[in-house]
Amino acid sequence: MSATSSRRRPGVRPAIAVTVGEPAGIGPEISLRAAWARRHDVNCVLLGDAAFLAMTAADLDPAIRVSSLSLMAVRNGGLPHFGADRLTVIDVPLDAHVVPGKLDKNNGRAVLATLDAAIEGVQAGWFEAVVTAPLQKSTINDAGVKFSGHTEYFADQTATPQVVMMLAGPQAIEGEQHGAPLRVALATTHLPLKDVAAALSQDGLARILDIIDADLRAKFGIAAPRILVCGLNPHAGEGGYLGREEIEVITPAIAAAQARGIDARGPYPADTLFQPKYLKDADCVLAMYHDQGLPVLKYATFGHGVNITLGLPLIRTSVDHGTALDLAAQGFGQADCGSMQQAIDTALAMATHSLDNKI
């Protein structure tokens, strides 16, 4: 991160890029609402179509003021720091009129351009972190660009060979948030279930455990992270009777991590691991596949979860939900911006810990 980064200047609110996602979904609304709610603590710079966002802001709340800049102006003169009475928008123009709830492939490349601008901005020192609103993968693919998701795109654009998807959020009981955050990382992400076992390897799990341990220390300020690892099979393989991946892959990877000084434990049966008595001293759970860990996380955090990409040379967080085209089609006021607020707060906390770790 550049030495001219905003966090290194006393009295200046840290700047975080917020890409507003699929324009026909709820992303623009929740980005504006969450950024406005957090404006006194962080300078959330929205990346999207300035005219569309100004119109959306006026419809949401006349009190929301936006000031737009061109990307070229920021490249030439840097990011100006307006006061907390307005939101900054870096204009990334759309190519087609937006109809809420209706996808248009003609806007796919513009959505992708907001991600490129955010990455450029962190590398140039304009931003401390990136927060992404949900986008629609199909729209970008229909626009002629092969795209599998935010996580993979950020890894490719930053030449990062290995990243880890982790979701986190405040645990909730009977609707009340409480206690330490629940963090669930994934050994595999968007794979068919039939391909998961073949995608697991000792070396791959070793790299994942290294990344989790390193980022929990550097970006979360956890001095000695404790990582609990799920088995792949029911009952963690039942001693080999229900599968041998625990014996041949997962257990050796954990042992190797322990030899490197990482406090990783397991493998544990996933159906019993997610209990307070096991999680109370854990800093992260590593699940073997998407639907092994995320249903538990999303249930426990009640829509206030945050998607975090570990292993990147930058900080990137996101919401724990999709574009919600059906809600967008119903008009403003239907969407909950809680996850976006949590994503902004998490990005700010991670940027703080990262800076402290470098000092």
UniProtKB/TrEMBL annotation:
User: Which EC number applies?
Assistant: 1.1.1.262
Q: In which residues is a divalent metal cation bound?
A: 190, 235, 290
Q: Give cofactor(s), names only.
A: Zn(2+); Mg(2+); Co(2+)
Q: Which SUPFAM superfamilies match?
A: Isocitrate/Isopropylmalate dehydrogenase-like
Protein's UniProt keywords contain Lipoprotein:
no
Name the top EC class.
oxidoreductase
Name the UniProt key words of this record, in alphabetical order: Cobalt, Cytoplasm, Magnesium, Metal-binding, NAD, NADP, Oxidoreductase, Pyridoxine biosynthesis, Zinc
A Pfam family of this chain: PdxA
Gene3D superfamilies per the record?
Isopropylmalate Dehydrogenase (3.40.718.10)
Where it sits in the cell: the answer is: Cytoplasm
Q: Does the keyword NAD apply?
A: yes
Q: Which domain of life is it from?
A: Bacteria
Query: How is its cofactor bound, per UniProt?
Result: Binds 1 divalent metal cation per subunit. Can use ions such as Zn(2+), Mg(2+) or Co(2+).
Instruction: Give me the reactions it catalyses.
Output: 4-(phosphooxy)-L-threonine + NAD(+) = 3-amino-2-oxopropyl phosphate + CO2 + NADH
Q: Which InterPro entries match?
A: PdxA, PdxA_fam
Which pathway does the UniProt entry assign to this protein? Cofactor biosynthesis; pyridoxine 5'-phosphate biosynthesis; pyridoxine 5'-phosphate from D-erythrose 4-phosphate: step 4/5
Q: Where does substrate bind?
A: 150-151, 298, 307, 316
Tell me how this protein assembles: Homodimer.
* Record's miscellaneous remark: The active site is located at the dimer interface.
Family, per entry: Belongs to the PdxA family.
Q: What does this protein do?
A: Catalyzes the NAD(P)-dependent oxidation of 4-(phosphooxy)-L-threonine (HTP) into 2-amino-3-oxo-4-(phosphooxy)butyric acid which spontaneously decarboxylates to form 3-amino-2-oxopropyl phosphate (AHAP).
Please report the name of this protein according to its UniProt entry: 4-hydroxythreonine-4-phosphate dehydrogenase
